[in-house]
Records
---
Amino acid sequence: PEGIVPFALDKTAAHQKFVAWISKGFFRPKALKTSASLDNLRNTYVPYFTYDAQAHSLWRGESGTYYYTTESYSVMVNGRSERRTRQVRHVRWTWKSGTHDQFYDDELICASKGLAGGLVEKVEPFNTKAPAPYAEQMLAGSEAEEYSLDPKDGWRQAAQKMVNNERAACSKLLNGDTQRNLQVSTNLSGVTFKHLLLPIYIASYQYGGKSWRFMVNGQTGEVVGDRPVDWKKVLLVVGGILVAVVGLVLLLAR
């Protein structure tokens, strides 16, 4: 690895983050905080590739602006025809084109096939602007995983993220009330990458006879994971909403 982002939270702080996280939310079981049994909290340095590239995009498309006209129509009321009016929406289309340039710095791709996707993407981001130079003694007391993703495959993932972001950025430039036929051509150049180790607490807890996974960002303290839902509370809220809607409908029908 070229660099390492040290843990900013110790296990005690990570556990406190977990307790605060598991208590949040009205739809959580009341006994969750007191009954959840935490398994081993593993402080793990997870391998990542970070990619840099300069993007240059050419775009063109149609920007639509809404305008309205008044339309007359007939309706039968008590056997008689009456004339009424309504507003009809139309779209005025305009072709636009332009360019968009952006430098992508440290686009993160998890290099562990076992952890990629799912929770690990939600526990991001990390501040990777000034990682510490890698030194083996920095791993003392922590687990560290070797990368299992080929760097070229990682680049394909990063490039797709950049291309998708470019399309979204060009869509904003096209603007309008609505759009159609947006075409974006993106060129990525000056590609570089680094192999970094980033700090994540990986753990699970037991509740209701089931194991629930979660992760804690060892730099920011962000907690993500799976939590059970108290479906009685969900049904109570949904039932209350339905009663309110029915009551409103009956009131308006009087």
---
Amino acid sequence: YYKSENARLLDGNLLIEAKAEMVGGKSYTSARMITKDRFAFKYGRIDVRAVLPKGQGIWPAIWMLGANINTVGWPKCGEIDIMEMIGGSAEREKTVYGTLHWDNGGSHACTCDKPGHILASGSFNDKFHVFTVTWDETFIIWYVDDVQFNKIDITPSGLSEFHENYFLIMNLAVGGNWPGNPDVSTKFPQRMIVDYIRVFQKQ
């Protein structure tokens, strides 16, 4: 259950917090920040400096959806996942993923088979890291701390979704098919701490 009270500023950082509490028939609360109808853009460089949460069932994400979603729906609007992580083990918590989703002749397609970025040591909960996407007419490229880990050619005609305006989303999900549900090992509250989001575009 997403509620605005779970997002706040502390010491100059944005905190998105997940709690174990029953609201609206849901067992957990969190927050989602979204720029839909406020800010959208096409092409550029997006940097997000953040510390990620941890724990079984914890699923932080920084991502984008096509601004035409209300007209064409998902996945035809397109989705650009800048960063996703699923908590639950040391291996999971040192790995992040960058993924594209789009419509392929009326069915969902994605780059879900692409490898993620794995830290050499520690986890994404230990300290701030910078998650980056560069996006132009030809490629979408993903980086962690300026180290490239994924690159997708978006020039094929079937990928026209990625040449439209997109808005930004940040959320801290709890549970779901990918991470699974929290268990007794999951400690609450969990926080995604965001220092900044920066979008750069050519003039």
---
Amino acid sequence: MPKIIIKPVKDDTAIESGYPDAIRTGDDTMWVGRYSRNSIYRDLVKFDLSDMNDCVDITSAILKLYVCDVTDPAVCAYVTPYLVTQKWQGNAVNWESAPGYDELSHGPTVPVKNAGFYQWDITEFMSHWFKHAKTNFGVLLKSTEAADGETKRFATSENLNAELRPGLKITYSHKEKPVQPENPSEGEADPEFHEDNPE
């Protein structure tokens, strides 16, 4: 039977072009999208997958985020998760030190307009991590950054409402534990190796 687990966020933060040296870790929300040509937000999200040692193959990985607030509900932000390729830490990363990401490894682009839950299927590159033993550096969320006022604000792992925090639902096949043969009860002889003692 496949395993289904929901992973909490290990690290998450926003970076902003308008304040390229600002570190925003610890905030309970993170903006994504283009507020203006001089103010663009992107988000970094990472999950701890170190306890999935029994994983054989990931069959489904769904990233779920909650939008708490929007700048303009009339403007849609088209948000895509990309595979991050370099190490980063939320308490040290900013726009200037942002890690690289693979433009060819990404999930679907989802239109984000109003407050509510949104989800992205990132099965393909999650599976790639395991099949090719790649290091998990998380995902970068960015919009097309094409329109002013498209900014949306996601709940982070610091949000007081735990139900709104980011989550990753993973379904995967796993190694079956070998079934150990039962040992004979203590003091009970195995009939195949029983020797009769002469009187």
